[in-house]
Amino acid sequence: MEPFQIVAQTDTLRLNGWEQRCPGLVAGFTLRSGGLSEVPYDSLNLGLHVGDNPDHVRKNRQVVCRQVGFDFEAWTCGEQVHGTAVEQVTDAQRGSGRERADRAIPAVDGLYTDKAEILLTSYYADCIPLYVLDPQKRVIGLAHAGWKGTVGRIAAVMLRALEESYGCKPDELLVAIGPSIRGCCYEVDEKVMEHVRGSTANWKQSVQPGGDGRYMLDLAELNQQILIESGVPSSHISRSNYCTACNGKLFFSHRRDKGRTGRMASFIGWKAKGVE
Ligand SMILES: [Zn+2]
User: Ligand 1: distance of its center to the CA of 200 in Å?
Assistant: First the structure.
């Protein structure tokens, strides 16, 4: 079953299973509809770094906050540099980057916290959103994994950071892999494949050779193999079936739209106790 379900009267997909299991948790992924931005960012573009009118982006972010029940002051993001660095978010960083890209938490692609009223966000137009949850310790993490972050094993880096900071054990974590470009639409060349082969022993099931030095790569599958190798039971991993490039009505896609397009957001946060 698809773990990300469209919620009526909103422009978001939500991880219903996680939200039902953990009262106070809000987690999901935005759709491209319901915002103010104009072509080619139509309409719920949430990226401040793609050339859209920043006033529209700020208002779009506020639309999402209202739909998911968080104050705009809670909207927090990292710079996203296609790296593998992750950072713990405390109250001091709450709201970083919500109005200006140059105020985002610098040089990180992953954020994690156990604090309430912080809405972790990151931005997508094909890359892989990874959501991590320790339901007992109430720790959450969000990582942005394009091909570089994936082969750099940001998934494993995040698991290590959660263990070091909070004592989270990989076999007690739940992980969700959000909507992204899938193997049906993501063609790569030998240069990328060199890194894929070195990323995990079980890379093969994520690749379909297409001949002529071209390959169809399923980054969601590759991240799943890295997570399993790092100690997350496969039964704890849920994966979206949505392909961003196949679904132009629902999603922006960098590859399909040839680079000029908006960004969806992944989001995860805890409401303060007693507030839902
Ligand atoms: Zn596709």
Answer: 24
Please state the domain extents for the chain: 4-183+220-270
Task: Please tell me the distance between residue 74's alpha carbon and the centre of ligand 1 in angstroms.
Answer: 33
Output the CA 256–ligand 1 centroid distance in Å: 10
3-state secondary structure the chain: CCCEEECCCCCEEEEHHHHHHCCCEEEEEECCCCCCCCCCCCCCCCCCCCCCCHHHHHHHHHHHHHHHCCCHHHEEEECCCCCCCEEECCHHHCCCCCCCHHHCECCCCEEEECCECCEEEEEECCCEEEEEEECCCCEEEEEEECHHHHHCCHHHHHHHHHHHHHCCCHHHCEEEECCECCCCCCEEEHHHHHHHHCCCCCCHHHEEEEECCEEEECHHHHHHHHHHHCCCCHHHEEECCCECCCCCCCCCCCCCCCCCCCCEEEEEEECCCCCC
Q: Output the CA 246–ligand 1 centroid distance in Å.
A: 4
Tens of pLDDT, residue by residue, the chain (276 residues)? 999 999 988 999 999 999 999 999 999 999 999 999 999 999 999 999 999 999 999 999 999 999 999 999 999 999 999 999 999 999 999 999 999 999 999 999 999 999 999 999 999 999 999 999 999 999 999 999 999 999 999 999 999 999 999 999 999 999 999 999 999 999 999 999 999 999 999 999 999 998 899 999 999 999 999 999 999 999 999 999 999 999 999 999 999 999 999 999 999 999 997 554
Distance 270 CA to ligand 1 centre (A): 32
Give ion ligand 1 contacts, CB < 5 A: 182, 184-185, 243, 245-246
The class level of CATH for 4-183+220-270 reads alpha beta
